[in-house]
Amino acid sequence: MAKSVKGKGAYSLAFVRLFSFLVKMGNNFNKLRVRFGLRRMSRNPGNVSDWEAIDRFTELIPEMKYYNRSDALYQIRLRALANGYKNLGQWLQRVSSDPEDLRELKENLTFVGSHFFRGDVWPTLKRQLENMLSVRDKEKINVWCAGCSNGKEVYSVLMLLSDLVPLDKVSLLATDYNREMLRQCEAGVYSLRTIDEIPLRYWPFTEKYNEERKTKKDFSHLFQFRFVSRLRELVQTRLVNLLMDDYPRGFDLILCRNVIKFFENDSKRKVQERLADSVNPGGIIVVSDEIEREGFPDPESLGLTRVGNSCVYIKSAQI
Q1: What is the residue-wise DSSP string for the chain?
Q2: Model pTM?
Q3: How is the beta sheet containing 170-176 ordered, strand by strand?
Q4: CA 137, 139, 143 angle in degrees (round to 5)?
Q5: Rounded CA gap, 57 and 65, in Å?
Q6: Domain(s) of CATH 3.40.50.150: residues in the chain
Q7: Which of these, 75, 254, 79, 225, lies nearest to 153 by C-alpha position?
Q8: Could you read off the pLDDT of 195-240 as tens digits, one per residue?
Q9: Are 75 and 110 spatial neighbours (Cβ–Cβ below 8 Å)?
Q10: Which of 6, 113, 182, 183 has its CA 20 to 30 A from that of 46?
Q11: 3-state secondary structure 95-122
Q12: CB 67 within 8 A of CB 244
């Protein structure tokens, strides 16, 4: 008999895995379609050359001058294809004339999606949190998820912390530059196909999502789950542009993953310096698994020590 988790959020593991498999097959097909479109676009960029288009887009979105140009070009091509445009010149004309399209493009330039418990950083992070908590006696553990995307990492770290401290001792700030991602993070509602990314022991933190259907034919709620209210209520969200805005400070743990890699080198270093300044002495910073693109090139100069070969850094308690 297939395993299930008892309680409000009970699901058949066999059903979840079958549903997840079918949806992922569809997603893989869509990814191949997009990649084919990107290759075709690169061979025939249209009336406006790639780099001329980037320069024009930079006039519309000034902070793009801080981005890695190749990554920015890729993301703009991706958004153009998603909106049905194979020609960057035509896409540029549309974005130039529609403030809503411009806002959407601006907020999605660094969006690459997310997963629950993404990467292999979690065992290392848990050990370092245990070490930190063993020598500190604080009323609150202050956490900042910078560039939180749709919130999957936010809920991952909350579930991890539930193994270590009472959740009423956790204060979590989730920030992003994308309003829609922040709304999804606040709602805590996700596709059922992704619940299989969450270890079974944490499934009691989920519940079936039974929002009233918008139409009689809308059955989407049957394929969604939501995190329980005691987890969702811990999440505070704020719109923050890591390139332009002031940073909050005073955190024991900062996660900033798959964001810095989009920036050009000078901007990348400035963001890393400001993150190091925002974490408390003895605190922890976690960046992407892509150490060559997001890791601190000179952590010692910022009072940071890298943990082994991981993307986890500890700030000196002496600072």
Answers
A1: ---B--STT--BHHHHHHHHHHHHHHHHHHHHHHHHHHHHHHH---SS-HHHHHHHHHHHSGGGGGB-HHHHHHHHHHHHHHTT---HHHHHHHHHH-HHHHHHHHHHTT-----TT-SS-HHHHHHHHHHHHHT---S-EEEEEET-TTSHHHHHHHHHHHTTS-GGGEEEEEEES-HHHHHHHHHTEEEGGGGGGS-GGGGGGEEE--PPPSSTT--GGGGEEEE-HHHHTTEEEEE--TTTSPPP--EEEEEE-SSGGGB-HHHHHHHHHHHHHHEEEEEEEEE-S-HHHHS-SSGGGGTEEE-TTSSEEEE-TT-
A2: 0.77
A3: 235-239, 170-176, 141-146, 251-256, 279-287, 312-315, 304-306
A4: 100
A5: 10
A6: 122-315
A7: 254
A8: 989 999 999 999 987 665 554 444 455 678 999 999 999 999 999 9
A9: yes
A10: 113
A11: HHHCHHHHHHHHHHCCCCCCCCCCCCCH
A12: no
- Segment 81-140, tens digit of pLDDT: 878 887 777 888 888 888 888 887 877 776 666 889 999 999 999 999 999 998 877 678
User: Looking up tokens 């996660």, which residue turns up?
Assistant: 255
User: How is residue 315 written in tokens?
Assistant: 């700030």
At 206, which amino acid appears?
A: T
Q: Which CATH number does 122-315 carry? A: 3.40.50.150
Q: Name residue, tokens 């549903």.
A: 19
